[in-house]
Write a structure and sequence with these properties.
The complex is a heterodimer of chains A (about 625) and B (about 160). With about 625 residues, chain A is of the alpha+beta class. Helix content of chain A is about 50%, strand content about 20%. Chain B starts with 17 loop residues before the first strand and ends with a helix. The chains are: A alpha+beta (about 625), B mainly beta (about 160).
Chain lengths: ~625, ~160
């Protein structure tokens, strides 16, 4: 159980632990390709060690024991006493998984039992192939080392305690080389005496009052440091991150965003009022006011951008989870797959980023499971045995694109069409007229699956429609390209900013509404639109394509009204046309939620306030379409 | 706005426990809203209807750059709707701000806490009236703002 006073430290530990776990995961996957990479082994060991230290400090016994066992294995890998085998890799990954779930359980206030099986497995692996003794490097004693690095005051303390002390130092003061050297001695010592009672002992030592640790930290800062310049080159990343990154509560950023949003609205009002003033009076003072207002305008714009940027995070945070997914999946399916990551530094809004994990896992699973062929099949087709799945991110205009591409067998369009016919998703008539792309989009239809039996991997009852739903929820778009035998490419795109959207202002029965412009494909004058009915429902005929037509006035429960224009839009995977009365151009609008009391309303994604102070509702065409479809099914 | 000192004898030591309410009239009923729950009182502004919402939600309005839902207190309390509302009272609740339409503002009414009696009525609408009190203007029903807003949020 975590006491209240420890909560804050615990929360910090959770964040740090996740970073370390990710590092371990990443490095292990990298090490599979390059098992001798000493630097990676060291980094992995350190990450596990730091994690163990933190867990020990908080008294998370189960985590400490597993981390300790894993650390010992890593220690032996590092000293060359063990070589990395897939079994070892699996066991350590298992430890990573356990620690992750254990932390979650601790967080929820549960108690966690030490998984003795896992600890034993790790211990056995550790004992497994002990190679001959490696002679100790340079033969320096602990005291010599401490002297050399300027930590003479720690002399005489147990080595584990010294290590904890060093690890608790701020990252930029942490003498990495000394820690490594000490770790090496510890690892050796352990193999020699097989000290079994050691974990408990160490735990006790690490659980010390926070105040004491803080004190010691302070003390150390004052002492002169003698750092080896070589060290700095080795860990530059860690160092700079420690100094430049500040963790801020999301709520603080959100309130900042709201304030800026309001500022933007007021600026728009000011601009409008000034325009009137300018038209009415001509004077030197008005000219002066203009220069002030235009610079204010610019500053507000920059401020808005700067605040938006604080919410942006590199997609790396998300991407780094996938090598593991691909690896596990490929092993399970007996396939050889390499995951290539590109554009990991591209940044996108945090909220969108977090929600993207599920859909991307789904797309990647699909690529590995359905896309990439088994090695033999690939060889026969004249492709390299190892398939490639590429996950990339890039910007284009004011949107960020995320792409999942594989060089597998591609999607069989005829098969998709047949399946859709069998399932009654489309009529034979419609199937005739559909373009390849239209057919491809059928895979996003709820409950659609091209594989005969849903495999354990991609199945699980969720289909591609889940991907589609998440994407539409964040005003994203989806595109899909495939070539038989060559592979499939699925491209998602999202607006860079969530708070502001470019919208088309339309009127319906005299009332203004905003339609996000990304979903608008084209606009047709009412009199030019070819409208007819199919089974009593209105449809738009556009270049021989039949598109369902929705009267926006009726859909919004405000009665029919004039049809001045028809807006053709891309809603999820299909095209839908909406009638409106009039158009009032496009405008950047700040999306404001309707608030908790009204809650989420399907079909309305929020509201905005225009320059002249009017409230305009922002329509969610996807939601309106869903409402309409429901109405059709139930009537 | 009239300040009404309650009728009846009030012992000096009890004066510190006087509670303040904004008295409003709704279809000839006197409703008291705890003053500390009120942010502001505004004229009837442009209210934009939100499709697909219940009739309790009259719409949303722009109050100094903020979008605020406007509720029909009459519907919530199950009253008829024959009088035209003239004011919006903006309430502060833990679920955010909300405006309620009222017919007229009567004024600030001060009631010693011992004069507040639990609402004797039971039923769907009276759940939002926590207490009643005899005042110079007649019987005042005290609105339980949090309960009212809670019930709206739970409905979704």
């Amino acid at each position: 159980m975590i006491s209240d006073e420890m909560r804050e430290i615990f929360n910090e530990f959770v964040v740090e632990a996740e970073e370390n776990l990710q590092k371990v995961e990443e490095n292990l996957l990298e090490l599979e390709k390059d098992p001798q990479n000493e630097e990676l082994l060291n980094a992995t060991f350190r990450a596990m060690h730091t994690l163990k230290g933190g867990a020990g400090f908080l008294g998370l016994k189960a985590v400490v024991e597993v981390a300790h066992a894993a650390e010992d294995v890593l220690g032996k890998l590092r000293s060359g006493e063990l070589t990395l085998t897939p079994e070892i890799n699996d066991a350590i990954l298992e430890a990573v998984d356990f620690i992750r779930s254990a932390i979650q359980r601790y967080e929820a206030g549960e108690d966690v039992e030490t998984p003795q099986d896992l600890v034993n497995k790790l211990r056995n692996l550790e004992q497994g192939e002990v190679k001959e003794e490696v002679p100790e490097k340079k033969g320096e004693s602990i005291d010599d080392l401490l002297d050399r690095f300027g930590f003479s005051h720690l002399k005489g303390k147990p080595i584990e305690e010294i290590l904890e002390e060093l690890i608790l130092l701020p990252p930029d003061e942490r003498p990495a080389e000394l820690i490594e050297a000490l770790d090496r001695i510890v690892a050796k010592g352990e193999t020699e005496q097989e000290a079994k009672q050691e974990p408990e002992e160490e735990e006790e030592k690490t659980i010390q009052p926070i105040a004491e640790v803080e004190e010691k930290r302070e003390e150390k800062k004052e002492e002169p440091k003698r750092e080896e310049p070589k060290k700095e080159e080795k860990r530059p990343v860690v160092k700079s991150e420690g100094e430049k990154v500040v963790r801020i509560d999301v709520h603080k950023i959100e309130s900042l965003m709201n304030l800026v949003g309001e500022l933007v609205l007021e600026r728009n009002r000011l601009l409008r009022i000034f325009q009137k003033l300018y038209d009415e009076y001509q004077s030197k003072t008005v000219d002066e006011l203009e220069t002030v207002i235009s610079s204010l305008d610019r500053i507000v714009g920059d401020l808005q951008l700067a605040v938006m940027k604080t919410r942006m995070q590199p997609v790396k945070r998300l991407f780094q989870k996938f090598p593991r997914v691909v690896r596990d999946l490929a092993r399970m399916l007996g396939k050889e797959v390499e995951l290539v990551l590109e554009g990991e530094d591209a940044e996108m809004d945090k909220t969108v980023l977090e929600k993207l994990e599920e859909p991307l896992i789904h797309l990647i699973r699909n690529a590995v499971d359905h896309g990439i062929e088994p090695p033999d099949e690939r060889e026969k087709a004249g492709k390299p045995r190892k398939g490639t799945v590429k996950l990339s991110a890039y910007y284009h205009g004011d949107r960020i694109f995320i792409e999942v591409a594989d060089d597998g067998r591609g999607i069989d369009i005829e098969k998709v069409k047949q399946k859709a016919l069998e399932r009654g998703i489309i009529s034979p008539d419609r199937a005739e007229k559909m373009t390849e792309k239209d057919v491809l989009f059928l895979i996003f239809h709820p409950g659609f699956s091209t594989k005969e039996q849903t495999s354990e991997v991609s199945g699980r009852g969720v289909g591609m429609d889940v991907v589609m739903n998440t994407v539409s929820a964040f005003r994203g778009t989806i595109d899909i390209e495939t070539e038989k035998g060559k592979g499939t490419r699925i491209v998602l795109s999202f607006p860079l900013t969530v708070g502001i959207i470019r919208s088309l202002l339309v009127s319906v029965n005299g009332r203004l509404f905003a339609i996000p412009i990304y979903s608008v494909l084209e606009i047709i004058q009412g009199e030019d639109a070819q409208i007819t009915t199919v089974s009593g429902k209105e449809v738009l005929i556009l270049r021989e394509l039949t598109i369902p037509l929705i009267n926006l006035g009726e859909a919004l429960e405000m009665g029919g009204g004039n049809v001045g224009y028809v807006i053709v839009s891309q809603v999820g995977s299909q095209k839908v046309a909406f009638t409106v009365e009039d158009l009032f151009g496009d405008e950047e609008v700040v999306v404001k939620p309707l608030g908790k009391i009204i809650g989420e309303v399907q079909g309305i994604s929020g509201a905005t306030i225009t320059g002249d102070g009017k409230v305009v509702l922002i329509l969610d065409l996807d939601g309106i379409l869903k409402r309409e479809m429901r109405a059709i099914t139930f009537v | 706005m009239a300040e009404i000192v309650p009728v009846g004898e009030v012992k000096p030591e009890k004066l510190s426990e006087v509670e303040e309410f904004l008295g409003i009239s709704l279809e000839n009923e006197l409703i008291g809203i705890p003053l500390k729950k009120i942010l502001t009182i505004s004229k009837i502004l442009d209210i934009v209807k939100v499709p697909y919402t219940s009739s309790i939600i009259v719409g949303v309005m722009n109050l100094r750059g903020e979008i605020i839902p406007v509720l029909s207190l009459k519907q919530i309390l199950g009253l008829s709707e024959s009088n035209e509302p003239t004011r919006i009272v903006v309430l502060d609740s833990k679920h955010g701000k909300a405006g309620v339409l009222v017919d007229n503002i009567v004024g600030v009414v001060r009631v010693p806490s011992e004069r507040l009696e639990p609402n004797p009525m039971v039923g769907r609408y009276s759940a939002y009236v926590s207490h009643v009190a005899q005042t110079e203007y007649g019987l005042m029903e005290i609105l339980d703002v949090d309960r009212l807003v809670d019930s709206l949020v739970e409905e979704d």
